[in-house]
Amino acid sequence: MTINLSLLGEKIKTIRIKQRKTQQQIADDCGISKSLLSKIENGKTSAAMATLSRISDALEVKLSWIIDDQEDKTIEIIKGNNRKGKIEDVDMGYSYERLAKRSKITGIEPMVVYVTPKDITTRQEPYTHTEDEFIYILHGTIDLLYDGETYRMTTHDSAYFDGSNPHFFLPVDNEEAQVLTIYVEK
């Protein structure tokens, strides 16, 4: 397999700049010279897999993404009729539909969560995850149980919270609600 050095270098440079890190910071984290990192970013030299692995670790991205010869798209459009259907399990208390793939650079993942009516919901324990979470109520009313508190939210309300704290969505008046949810990696 031949690696496109220009594309590889461009990906490294783009993610480094988005993370507001200097070449010197990444070079120091990797145990390489700033000059070598500059040459890699500019597509002027190849690097050993071990070096690329250290760079990917320093940038907190997968090595496979760095060496993948696919250019990152600046836009991804998914037509409604091409989107995969809902992922459902009534025992979870919700179903969801992904709106786009998780961004490899920003770590943002959007989806619509369909909050299941209480009479068919058996799960009542809260969720936790490592990402921050933004929610916007598209339709209906929910009680957001967050870190021991209850917040009533209705159509057009929004919230942003730390997903590592226990949280759960419950429908109000036993009616399904639709919640735009965006997970944001920390």
Keyword list:
three-stranded antiparallel beta sheet, elongated, 2 domains, 9 strands, alpha+beta, six-stranded antiparallel beta sheet, 434 Repressor (Amino-terminal Domain), 186 residues, Jelly Rolls, 5 helices
Commentary on this structure:
- It is a single chain.
- This protein is an alpha+beta fold.
- The protein has two domains: 5-67, 434 Repressor (Amino-terminal Domain) (Orthogonal Bundle), CATH 1.10.260.40; 80-184, Jelly Rolls.
- The chain is 25% helix and 29% strand.
- It has five helices and nine strands, in the order αααααβββββββββ.
- It has a six-stranded antiparallel β-sheet with strand order 1-2-3-9-4-7, with no helix packed on it.
- A hairpin with a 2-residue loop joins strand 5 (141-146) and strand 6 (149-154).
- Helix 2 (23-30) crosses helix 3 (34-41) and helix 2 (23-30) packs across helix 4.
- The radius of gyration is 21 Å and the shape is elongated.
- The protein starts with a helix and ends with a strand.
- Keywords: DNA-binding.
- InterPro entries: Cro/C1-type_HTH, Cupin_2, Lambda_DNA-bd_dom_sf, RmlC-like_jellyroll, RmlC_Cupin_sf, TransReg_Diox_bact_type.
- This is Transcriptional regulator, contains XRE-family HTH domain.
